[in-house]
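pinging the channel bc i need a second pair of eyes. not urgent but kinda urgent?? the chain im working w is below, pasted from the shared doc
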Amino acid sequence: MSWAEATSLKKEWFEGSFTFLPFLFCFCLMLFSATLVVPAHAAQQAQASGPSQPMRFAVVRSGAYSCEPNCPEWIWAEGDIGPGTAVLFKRFLKKLGGRKLPIVLQSRGGDLNAALAMGRMIRQRGLDVAVGYTTFTTCAPRQSGCDAEKKGGYKGVAAAGFAYCYSACPLILAGGTRRLVGAWAQLGVHQVTTTYRQQLITYRITTRIVKGKKIVTKKVVGRKSKGTFSTTDMSKKLRRDLVAYLAEMGISAQIVEPINNTPASDILVLTQDEMLKLRLITSVDQVDALTSPAICKTASPSVNCRQLPVAPAVAAASPTTVQSPPRGISPGVTGQAMRFAIVRSSESGCEPVCPEWISAEGVIRAETPGLLEKTLNSVKDKRLLVVLTSSGGDAEAAMAIGRIIRNHGLSVALGKTKFSGCEPSQGDCSGDGEGFSGRAGSYEGYCAAECALVVIGGAQRFAASGAIVTLRRKGTEASKDLEQRLAQYLAEMGVDNKLLVAMQAPPGAGFDPPTPAEMEALKLITNTADVEYLTAAALCKDPPASEGCTARPLQSGND
């Protein structure tokens, strides 16, 4: 029945007798939803591949070394944006009360309307947003059987290396008061895909006359799907809504053109300069600016720092049970002795040419330099990056290691290797038959005291802005002879003697932890690149390949 026929029928009925006469009226209703989801191939380029996971939220406290008792906390927000994500986010924020925590965001995209709603909630609360991901030092929120919230909450370390925010995700970022996308993170846009769902809806319309008044009631009596179709043509209304939202957030409307001109099957990754011009980001800082323990060590800690009560000190051990530390080891430095391992990247899509590096983790002891020499002999003339984590140890051995590193022309980066199989610290572990494999990152990595002596041996020395570094030695005051040898070593490595002053400073004096600027001023480091970037598979894909890239012959399949 057409619209004209329905009107005619109504007119004929009113001219007849005043009795109930129901009739059916049908028309086709088109419902639509707008989505921005990154295409699979682009997602894989930035580790965004894998099964779809809906966005979830959790409060995370920094699990970085030496952070407690006053540590930064943030909101973990990761996954695809669904139509109901905004509702979940609203409930999550309500539970937080008035706390202002920054958001560490990673997403492939999703529902446009949900993203806009979330951006407005973020702006209303005055929250900061950074593109990044969280590596959990406790179990992770989606992990089966994880009850971290019942045991004090989630802990982890945030990083930006190859984090991603695609499609609808930048619209969430736009809501941030401070908006950060670090140099190693990616933000990308493309066309909005609008999906129309057509339904044939049948109504029963009943008209009656009561006391001279006409009363009309309408009831749906049937729905029938007539299929769907999608288009990337941006409607005038959608453009108006998008431009209005951007203006509301202080973002340049010029971003609408790259959104509209980039095919939905592709992704346009913006540079930091482009993001600054579009006002998508407020600075070129990384996620560390919101999550590093250093932001809680200043005279005016950040608003997302939360101090926990310090547990009562444990009674001092009986003199009969106290053991003297090994020769040259600072009192208080405990743990497994440093071990070295050649590690190959386990990053998806890496083979056949992958980055390799030397993992160096543990306490520095007298025998450690010999172990390093043995490891280097096994790789012959390869100049691999040394990924270092250590709580310090033997000062003489640390200087010997630094000299070995300098003589071999190696570079050093602060970080920790997350092994994909067993670890070198496990006595019966020797790799998977082809050696050790894993991923390197700044998560859980730290460098304390004598570790700095190893670092300065590097031809190039890297530490991300969130690196955990403490310079003061835990041992007793150095002898005159040792102090002289330390000063000579620093001069040999071209490092300012102020580093030695910082290492010898009494508790509470000097700066600890040092800022990246202070570490660069002391020549402790030469660059703030993240170890995750320095060991990324992408460095082996484009010429010239990184020096640490090593080809592995492809195995032929069996007939």
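so Confidence is low (pLDDT under 50) at residues 1-32, 37-49, 313-332. and Residues 325-551 form a domain with the 2-enoyl-CoA Hydratase; Chain A, domain 1 fold (CATH 3.90.226.10). — does that match what u expected or am i reading it wrong
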